């Protein structure tokens, strides 16, 4: 499964690189066909027409479909110039086909040498990621404050409160925080009173661990209600 995904990604990159090579050949042929001045004017006109429209689309769309409006406008201008150039290459017959294939192979070679760029996340995804990281940082700060200062009586109270919170229902983020708090409680229970901790586990870990953990290691546990 993973191998097929890698192969598909490699084929897609090769196809894109080859298409860019053919497009570049067409653009060069378009410059030869129209002349440098006319080609420059055509590129400028198409760019100035497409760039504002691409900017507006990117601004009003939450999940931006592209990274830069200028890149979209430049690509559109190059495509408009490459179209008549490709027609000219086809008119040249075998010579034009060979020229396009040479440039396509050159771009594929560059693609094989240059490592793949990381995928740029959309603005919405980046914002959600930052918010999530901030929330977990806040949770970790709260959790860190629970590790040492609390007495075992207070930790037992925290365990009982979190049990009630889970019973009432909690969202995914709250469940993660509660799970980490309860893990800290378990570590502290075992470290501070290993005998009572084992008795509590043997009893099935009831919601109130204080009956087992607040006694001294030699005292018998209070029978459950």
Task: Briefly summarize what is shown.
The protein is mainly α and 225 residues long.
Question: Mind explaining what this structure looks like?
Answer:
The structure is a single chain. The protein has helices at residues 2-34, 36-60, 69-92, 94-113, 123-147, 152-168, 172-192, 194-202, 210-213. It folds into two domains: 2-113, no CATH class; 123-213, no CATH class. 16% of the residues are buried. It starts with a helix and ends in a 12-residue tail after the last helix. With 225 residues, the chain is an all-alpha fold. Helix 1 packs across helix 3 (69-92) and helix 3 (69-92) packs antiparallel against helix 4 (94-113). 79% of the residues lie in helices and 0% in strands. It is elongated, with a radius of gyration of 33 Å.
Task: Give structural attributes.
single chain; 225 residues; mainly alpha; 9 helices; 79% helix; disordered C terminus
């Amino acid at each position: 499964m993973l191998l097929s995904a890698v192969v598909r990604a490699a084929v897609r990159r090769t196809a894109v690189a080859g298409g860019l090579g053919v497009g570049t050949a067409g653009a060069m042929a378009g410059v030869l066909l129209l002349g440098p001045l006319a080609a420059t004017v055509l590129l400028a006109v198409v760019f100035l027409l497409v760039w504002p429209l691409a900017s507006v689309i990117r601004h009003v769309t939450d999940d931006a479909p592209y990274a830069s409006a200028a890149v979209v406008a430049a690509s559109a201008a190059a495509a408009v110039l490459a179209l008549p150039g490709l027609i000219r290459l086809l008119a040249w017959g075998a010579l034009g086909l060979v020229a396009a294939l040479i440039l396509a192979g050159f771009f594929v070679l560059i693609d094989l040498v240059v490592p793949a760029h990381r995928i740029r996340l959309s603005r919405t995804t980046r914002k959600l990621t930052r918010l999530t990281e901030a929330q977990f940082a806040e949770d970790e700060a709260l959790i860190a404050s629970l590790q040492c200062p609390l007495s075992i009586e207070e930790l037992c109270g925290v365990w009982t409160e979190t049990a009630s919170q889970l019973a009432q229902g909690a969202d995914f983020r709250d469940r993660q925080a509660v799970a980490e708090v309860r893990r800290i409680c378990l570590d502290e229970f075992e470290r501070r009173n290993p005998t009572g901790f084992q008795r509590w586990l043997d009893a099935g870990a009831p919601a109130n661990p204080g009956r087992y953990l607040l006694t001294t290691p030699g005292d018998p546990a209070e029978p459950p209600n």
